[in-house]
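User: Show me an example of a complex going from sequences to structure tokens.

Assistant: Sure. Here are the input components:
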Amino acid sequence: MRAEIIAVGSELLTPYRLDTNSLFLTDELHQLGVRVVHKAIVGDTPDEMLSSFRHALDRADVIVSSGGLGPTDDDRTRWTVAELLGRKLRTDDDVLRKIQERFRRFGRTMPEINARQALIIEGATILPNPRGTAPGQWVESNGHIVILLPGVPHELRALFEAEVKPRLSKLGSAQRLFTRDLRICGLFESAVEQLVSPLYAMYPDVETTILATARGIELHPQIWCSDPVRAGQILDEMVERMSLALGENLVSTRGEALEEIIAQLLTENRATIAVAESCTGGLLAERLTKVPGSSAYFLGGVVCYSNEMKSALVGVPPEMIQSKGAVSEEVARALADGIRKRAGATFGLGVTGIAGPGGGTPEKPAGLVHIALADEHAVREKKFQLPGDRELIRNFATLNALDMVRRYFLYPAHGKS
Amino acid sequence: MRAEIIAVGSELLTPYRLDTNSLFLTDELHQLGVRVVHKAIVGDTPDEMLSSFRHALDRADVIVSSGGLGPTDDDRTRWTVAELLGRKLRTDDDVLRKIQERFRRFGRTMPEINARQALIIEGATILPNPRGTAPGQWVESNGHIVILLPGVPHELRALFEAEVKPRLSKLGSAQRLFTRDLRICGLFESAVEQLVSPLYAMYPDVETTILATARGIELHPQIWCSDPVRAGQILDEMVERMSLALGENLVSTRGEALEEIIAQLLTENRATIAVAESCTGGLLAERLTKVPGSSAYFLGGVVCYSNEMKSALVGVPPEMIQSKGAVSEEVARALADGIRKRAGATFGLGVTGIAGPGGGTPEKPAGLVHIALADEHAVREKKFQLPGDRELIRNFATLNALDMVRRYFLYPAHGKS
């Protein structure tokens, strides 16, 4: 079965908004054995809408639309689909009553125009909306299925889960999509590609998407298969080979983010951490505290932008800053060890660098970053020259700092000094 | 003139990637007087591609495609458009030479398959690609224009700027899109809507998009107009009325982010700031240091997750934490005043709260946040009960903390204690 997703809404044709519902819908549909072959984004002009839905019927067995079910003149999805299929709209009394009740519950009277939300396409199955006023609709016609969903993301999700999923799971093809989600840190996209691409020919049924993000590189191998056991075996085997190729650069194989892996490592080892960061400006602490429950291992951090704060709060000797410079191996080490001692943590992580665009010199250009990790015995340090603009440099520096913690647990004896 | 944007690439039909090129293209096209009426996203299957391009020709005067110009078998955009228009592809020797040169410059020999990137549609204008191997193509046929662009964002942008913009600016209609970008903080989306929607009827030619983001609410009024002066007057007048309606909640009218407004205010007033944050976990410092040159006014911050760090690094009395709790008005005030003094800053900003999902109690549920701002004379404090999950609570708390600084400068005498 082939699906097309149509997102309806003039605001989706502005430079400010993307149709993000389709990511959720694609994921769900693929798992139900329905392959998304096309996505369309259309405004609320009747002609455009009709043209989009008509063309979708040419291409797809299932059309899933989001949006255009509101009460205003702009909300044209019901009319469009009714016109396209040559059907009438009728007011459903039961739906109307529920909408009125919903307004009453919030202490308001239903505005007249909301009665439009009770208009149902002849022959359609009503899909109750637990989170809003507009119900979804499921219309079958000439072997096609048209599913109308509201555009508000949490309404769409709840409605899909409760009403669409059970119906489609009976109809979807036996072939479903199975995937893995590998996270990699410490290699550029091209290097990852080079390491894993020889595997593509070995697994011709697996399609692999590679994705470079500010959080590292992601690999998404995927296979359409009617046999879950076989799909799992193929993917596991391929992931195993990918792991061997990627070595210590592989962070996780089930989509865990780097900060989640670190959370696991610190928790398992009953260790705590504190950070002292300059050029990352709080991003390192932010990433560590993103994980719920991080207060169990994250004691705190210092964002020491000024030299005075580096000395006052972390105890970096002012003479060291003066002689070596704030961005130097020595200061990174002093930050790591200083914050570890002041916080009474197992580990201290120190970052100092130049995020740019200003502040660089020929000897110390923007992108130069020193990162140090201290435990009670020693401090290991690494120097990076990172590419990109201010935002990318801050992100890559954070990533590399977090990765230093991960690698510590993999190779505790390496890089000590 | 009406445009359709087609994004080509199977990876855009996965749950992992969105077509972000279309945001840039939409913005540019609207400013050139070309209205985007439809967007399509299609994989690299020849039939699907042909169907998409054919339907686009029905709807639009201009088709702008991104992607599918690479050297592999999957890159089918040239073939699709040639087939659709009934034209041949020919190898352009000049383009081929440039591609070979490009490889030579990077010390490599051009792989044979890259010769495909020199295939040009009969009658097409070649659009040189300053950033990559695949040139763009501009094809006219029966009053339609089809523009083929590479999918790599920075190549697409550079090529559009240099080659497409000058050509389209001669052709686009006299009506161009004029916009404003208002940022609002301190109101929910529904409240903003209620305050500004009475203006919609007064300005029937202006279409306003409202957008709720983790960075606050945005309002984008826009008007298609052939007279820039008139468009400016209408928008200015409407924005003026919106400003009156929104009052002190209006952060900016030209798209400046809250942190940029604060950067201006602090710089103009030769003031410095330091922060002590708990539940926002570094996000507050991160936001402040996002702005290039922030080292001029941001001295540093402390992320004090543990009670010990609140006392050791910011001087919050342990007895106070014990008697009032770490999440309390008193501790927020002590954090703000403590970090101000320790950093020697004009302002100290303190945040303490419960981001959840764990850590809440019936008296102090997740979402409870105390924020305090200290200057040398006094400390003002505000209590918030924020909605949403951990990520939203952290974002809203950061937003409100930053906004407290902005409001201080607007109303320096308010809220002192």
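The lines above are the inputs; the final block is the predicted structure for all two components together. Chain B has 14 helices and 18 strands.
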